[in-house]
C-alpha cells in the first residue's frame, strides 16, 4: 500500500488551531488586548463594529514591531515571550503560545500597522486567510494597530454559528471588563459602532471598578487584604445586601490575569453563607498574587482556567480573608442586645390558654388580627394579596367561612388531616379548597379531585396576563409617588435599553436612563415598589443570556420572567379566597395544563383512581 500520511499545509493547520483559539469575536478581542498589554502599552483603544463580526481593531502605544517581526508574528509558534520550556514556569506575560495571530489571520482579513520607537517609518501588512496580500513601508504612529475584519469569512459554518450582534457584543464587553479590571494602570477606550462605550483613565483598582460598574458601586465595596507566604489577596467584595440575581460581578485575577475557578468561588461564596438573600450571588473583585511557579496556566488554550499547586491552602486563606472583611467592616449585622424583652413572648407561655383581658372592650374590634396572621407566616401572602389579582374576588373574603383562620394556623401536616375530616362530612362542596404542604391546592371536581401546584398555576395565570398586556399594549401602570432610582452597570443598562420597549408595554415607565442607572416612574400594577429592584435584576439576569431578536420572543421571555419572579412560591400559605381565585384564574387561562415553562400545573385524581386503591 502506498504511503498516505502527509503533513497538513500550514494554512490548514492554522485554521484547525484557530478553532481552539477563536471561538467568537470576543476571543479575538482578548488575544489582541493581551498582546497590547504584553507590549507594555499605556493606552489601548478597542474598536468594534456589529458585535465584532465586521470589525475588531485594537490600537496600542506599546513597543511596536520591526518589519521582520511584524511579518514573522503571523507564523505559528512564533513568539517573543518564551524561548525554552522552563520559561513556562516563570511567565510574566499573557501570551506565550505564539498561536493567536497565526490563528486569527487564518480565518479573517487582517491588517497590521506597527512601528517601534527607534524607527521613523513602520510596516503595513495585509493578510487574508493566511496569505500575505501586501506588505509595505508606511508612516504610522508608534505602537501597533491590528484590524480584524470579516471574522470566519472562509468558514461559513462558524460564521453562522455566531449569535446576534448584541450577544457577541456582550461577550466582548465581558472580555473588555476583565482585561480593564486586571490593568487599572493602563488607560482603555472602547468604541462600539462609532460611539464611545468606555473611556477609562489610569486609576487605582477601586476607581477602575467604579468607572466600569457605575458611581454607586463605590459605597457597595468592602476592601479585602491579606498577605501570607503563599498568597497575597487584595481587592473588594460587594456588601451582602447588594448581592445580585445575576452572577455578573465575580472576578478573580491571578497575577493580573482574569481566571475562572469554581473551587475558589466556592470559598468566597462560603464566606457569604447566610448573609445574602436566596437566589442572589455575592459580588467580588479579588486579586491574587501567587508565585508563578505554582500556577499552571497551560491547561486550557484560552487560558482562563488555571491549576494551582496548593488549592486547599488557597481555599482556606481566601475564605477566612473574606469572612474577616465582612466582619471587620461591620457588614455582618451585630447582635441586637437592646431588644425590649417585653415584646417577646417567652416560650413557657406558648401553650397556655389565651385569657381575655380584664377590661371592657369592644369585642368586635381587633386591631391585631392582621398582625397575628403575619406572625404565622402569611407575610408573603399578604404581600401577594396587595398585587391585586385576588382582589377581583374580594367579595368572597367577606363570605368565606371562619375556618379560614384555623387553616392558617396549622402546620401543613395538620392541614392535611383537616382535609380528610372535612371531606368525609362534606364531600363535593363546590368551591372548597385546601392547601397541602404549602405547595398544592386541592379542590373537588365532579369526577374526583384536582391537585394544583400553586406556584406553577400562578405562573401560568401571570404569564397569560402579562402576555395579553404586551400584545394589546394596554398595560396598566401605577405611577410611583417619587421616581425610584435604580443603579445598574453599563452592561446591564445596555440590556435594559434593548428591551425598553417591551418593558414599557408591560407597564414599566422610565423617566430617564443615565450613565449608571435608571429612574423608574411607573411599574406594572402587579409589581409592588419594594419588588421593583428584584424584578429588574431578574429580568436583566435572564436577558443577559440572550436577547431574542424578534419582538414576539422578547415579549414571551419578559412575560415568563415576570411570571416566575412574581408568582406565589411553594411555602406560602394561601387563604381560602386566594386559593379560590387562583383555581378560577387557572381554569380561565387559554392553556391550563402547563406552566409557561412547560411543567404540569395540576393533576386529577378520579373517583375511580381512589377506588382502585381500596381494592
Ligand atoms: P503570543 O502572544 O503567544 O506570543 P501572538 O500570536 O499573540 O503570540 O503574537 C506573536 C508575537 O507577535 C508576540 O510574541 C509579539 O512578539 C508580537 N506581537 C503581537 N502583538 C503585538 C503588539 N500589539 N505589540 C507588539 N508586539 C506584538
Ligand atoms: Mg498573544
What does this structure look like?
The chain has 615 residues and is of the alpha+beta class. It has three domains: 10-200, Histidine kinase-like ATPase, C-terminal domain (Heat Shock Protein 90); 205-328, Ribosomal Protein S5, domain 2 (2-Layer Sandwich); 433-604, MutL, C-terminal domain, regulatory subdomain (Ribosomal Protein S8, Chain: A, domain 1). It has 20 helices and 22 strands. The strands form five sheets. Strands 5-4-3-6-2-1-7-8 form an eight-stranded mixed β-sheet. Strand 7 and strand 8 form a beta hairpin. Helix 1 crosses helix 4 (100-106), helix 6 packs antiparallel against helix 7 (205-213) and helix 14 (454-472) packs across helix 19. The radius of gyration is 31 Å and the shape is elongated. The chain binds adenosine-5'-diphosphate (ADP) and magnesium ion.
The first-level CATH class of the largest domain is given as Alpha Beta
Count of strand segments: 22
The distinct bound ligands, ions and cofactors come out as: adenosine-5'-diphosphate, magnesium ion
- Give me the number of helical elements: 20
Strand content: 15-25%
Task: Please give the alpha-carbon distance between the first and last residues.
Answer: 75 Å
Q: How many domains is the backbone divided into? A: 3
CATH second-level architecture of the largest domain: 2-Layer Sandwich
According to CATH, what is the topology of the largest domain? Heat Shock Protein 90
The stretches of 5 or more residues where confidence is low (pLDDT under 50) are 333-352, 370-428
- Residue-averaged pLDDT: 81
Principal-axes shape call: elongated
Strand order of the largest sheet: 5-4-3-6-2-1-7-8
The helix fraction, in percent, is 25-40%
Structural class: alpha+beta
- Rg, rounded, reads 31 Å
The main β sheet shows up as: 8 strands, mixed
CATH-wise, what's the superfamily of the largest domain? Histidine kinase-like ATPase, C-terminal domain
